[in-house]
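Field: COMPLEX_INPUT
Field: COMPONENT_COUNT = two
Field: RESIDUE_TOTAL = 607
Field: MODE = joint
Values follow.
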Amino acid sequence: MSTDAPATAAPVSPPATTPIRPVQYGRGRRTLTRSAGYLTLVVVSAVTVFPFLWMIATSLRPSNTVFGGPLVPRTLTPDAYRRAWIQLDYPAHFWNSVYVTTATVVIVVVLATLGGYAFAKLQFAGRQVIYVVLLSTLMLPITAIIIPLFLEMRTLNLLNTRQGLILVYVGGALPFAMFLMRAFFETLPDELIQAARVDGAGEFRIFARVMLPLAAPGVATVVIFQFLSTWNEFLLAQTFISAPQYLPLQPVLFGVVGQHRTDWPLLTAALTMSVIPIIAVYVRMQRRFVAGLTLGAVKD
Amino acid sequence: MTSAALATGRRRSIRRRPVGYLFIAPIVLFFVVFVGYPFLRSFYLSLTSWSGLGSPSFVGLRNFQVMADDPAFWQSLRNTFVFTGATTVLQTALPLLLAVLLNRGWRAGVLFRTLVFIPAVISLVVTGVLWQLIYEPNFGTLNEVFRTLGLDALAHPWLADPKTVLPALIVVSLWQSLGLFTLIYLAGLQGVNPDLYQAASIDGANGRQQFFHVTVPMLRTVTGVVVILNLINGFKTFDLIYVMTGGGPNRASEVLGTYLYGLAFGSTAGGVPALGYATAISMVIFVLCLAATLIQLRIARRSADVD
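Field: COMPLEX_OUTPUT
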């Protein structure tokens, strides 16, 4: 499974697919099936997108006009955004999410690249055994180890710290990220390494100067996948952090429902702001997103 | 993957490079501290009784005996199976149909694909909160739509009624993961040789026959992966249900994940955290996921043998 994982994801990205022609019906029947198919796609996309449009529309309503009235509000106001920004202490939590996510992504990419390279290209005793052990828990759900993990964090005095959260995220994410990077490095030719060795380059230099630049697409996939899963993570953040000033966005968004149950513009404004970075990156880097997530699915 | 890597290892007779240990040391360290040790410790904790203060006391298999007599556990287990069964069937079949449809080539195909994939990049907290508002009984959009259409009888407190809460959650799960699994199938469809359809249509197979006799068999490996992913996602499900219902009303949507979380970290457990018992329940989730993984490995091996 390891080596063909990126290969299966790659074909997702190119937009044009070879259309598979169904059997030839009569012309009228053909048009009918096409129209039915088109209609299905339109309905499915509309149902998918509707909650987001509704979320944005609601967030722009004046706070006293939420219930009843037309779907698209007559007057639009950014008022709810201003209130969410101030009342929820939004900038602080947003910053916590940015900080935790950025640090996790950077550490995961650096360590997973190093490890993935070693498992793909360097020989050492026990390599295979260590590799299998690292991957053995790939399907282990977080709920299955959250209690011992919590106790360990408590012992290490890492509860209620963003650093602790980063460490746990890195620990949980590394095996899969390493697995992806290994698959990418495996596709690169050994001759490059041998040539560099002949030139007298050290092993680390070969890795950093020769091989790493060639693995850029793999790094990009890991970055995006990791960014997404860390930004969206809820369970560990909710469990390990209780001090309000260190909470990242997801637990805050969860808590907001209880506190502002009836203030829908504020709720939806808070949701919308949390989604903006993700959507922005998604729209710009769609291909890599799709590759990253379909790969990620194999893990989750 | 193991055997392939072993083979290349044997073929290469380059000299060993101990520097490799330096490259993997950080990963191994992180793994041992944040995955391996907690994982092993959970086996021991499941055999203890502990409130989290003082030290755990060893009670042998008593937690598992308690579990066998705990109606809340059985309720959670049943809900977990209902949720997992329904999501697995729906989220395996519907994405396949959608992928086949998308694969026929449409002018706006890329747009459709982009749109259905959006929920997959959004957090489950945002998804959960959003759908909570949609399902809200008095002002929620769903009931508003029914009332506007004159179908007042269909308006319903979806998440507050024990009969509708699980189906309502299953719909959200489907909405969230439809795009993701569709894309996995689309990737699989790219690998199907178009000549097969050509041959089938020369033999006079109609669209439906082509689907069942060409597409479905050719995609069986991908379908296997999708099924297993759905099973594992179902067994370990937590975020969506915790955010939307917290397992309520009256445990009608309680699953193993939310039940054990409440026992360990919630205030609903009668005040005292039951860490040992909660860990024993986490073992059940682990065993279910392990079983699904082993089945997947078996299928993968068998199909590798066939090919």
